[in-house]
Each structure stands twice: as C-alpha cells, then as structure tokens.
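BUG: 3D viewer hangs when loading the predicted structure for this chain

Environment: internal workstation, default settings.
Expected: structure renders.
Actual: progress bar stalls at 90%.

Input used:
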Amino acid sequence: MGRVNGNVINNVSCHGNSDGKASGIVIGGGAPFTYSWTPSGGTGDTASGLTAGTYTITVNDACANTSSASVTITQPTAINISSAFVNETSSAPCNGQASAGVSGGISPYTYSWTGGGTTDTIKSLCSGGYCCRVTDHNGCVDSACVTITNLTGVNEVSSNSGSIMIYPNPNNGQFTVRSTVDCGASLIEIYNVLGEKISSASLNTIKGGNSTIDISSQPNGVYVYKIISKTGALVGVGNISVQK
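Structure tokens produced before the viewer hung:
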C-alpha cells in the first residue's frame, strides 16, 4: 500500500464546539479501502463532529496493507468579556458609563447592549442593569451584565430630616452605621462591582443607634450600599471602600 495523508477540512469554529472535520486521502494501494479513526470519527474517509484534539486515521487496502496519519483540529480561545462601569452621580443624573473589553474568539467583534448600543462602550446611562452580547467573526457569542447605581455619596444619604452615616470609610471592611432618624432605616445591602449582593444586615432603628457591618472577607475595592426603610423604601445609596 502507498500512504494516507490526513487533511483538516474545518477546525472548530467556537471554543468548546464539536464541528471540526477531517479527511484521509489515500495515495497508492489497492481498493477497496477500509478506514478507522481514533479516538473517534467513525469508519469513513471523512470524520465530522470533532472537538479540538488530535485524530489518527488508519487505512487498510485489499491486500491487508496498512497506513496511518494524524491530524490536529484546533479551536479558538473562549470569548472573555471584562466588563467595567462608572456609576452615575446625584450631581449629574444619567451620566453612568459601561464598557466591554473582549479577548479570545476571533475578531472583529460586534456588540449589542440593552437599549440598543452597538459599540464596546455606552454612555449617558441612568441607574439600572445593562447587558452586552458580544458576537465574534465566527458567530460565537458571550454576554456580560453590569448594574449602574446612583452614588449619592456618604454625606448625601438622607431620610426626611435625618441622615445615615457610615464610618470609617475607607477601612478594613468593618463599618459602623449610625442613624439620626427615628425608625428611618432597618436594612443595609452591600453589592460588589458586578452588581452581586454580597451582604445584607438589619440595622438598629433607634435614633442615634449604631450598627456594625462586616465585609472584611471581601477583597479590596469599592462596594455599593443600599439603605432600606422598614416600609421597603430606598432611604439612600452610597459607596464604601475596603482597604486592608
């Protein structure tokens, strides 16, 4: 028998897919031929539905002669979206910003944001959730979401005639919450930069009472807090910084 050459017809289009395709081309030998692919691929001269990896085709001819060849099916790296955002402020409402930094896949990329944005960065955002769907050149898709919050600042969080103070800020993750409002606030929720709630704690509702929150197990960074009243109303929002 002559020899068999392995030929990659299609590499995997998206990371983790199984749409690779390869074939074996026989040169010489005597027909008919039998084919066997390992570790998978079937018994034809062409193997399809392949994931990334190396495949070997073995061919036997009518005279029981054997020849083998290997091919390697590749795949692009997975799409990775590194999302970032800038919260809006009370002094300039709806001035938030969100962006999607993309790596992996096959460029160029197209972007589709909640609300209709089609670039990697969108601006003039009001409070709320925003998701970006990224599609690469091969049609592979991934998405990521961010939450834009109105950061009123520690000194601006108020309820009627009183206020909520959180101190020291920044610190190592253990904060004191002090209310100067009678029954003005009963719950504090803490969110990370991805908009995920990482902590929820009841507050001392007595005027002048102190409460303690502890997020020292979280990494350094800026976190968003929401103060909620007994009736479920949002008393205020602000940010605290953990610096160990």
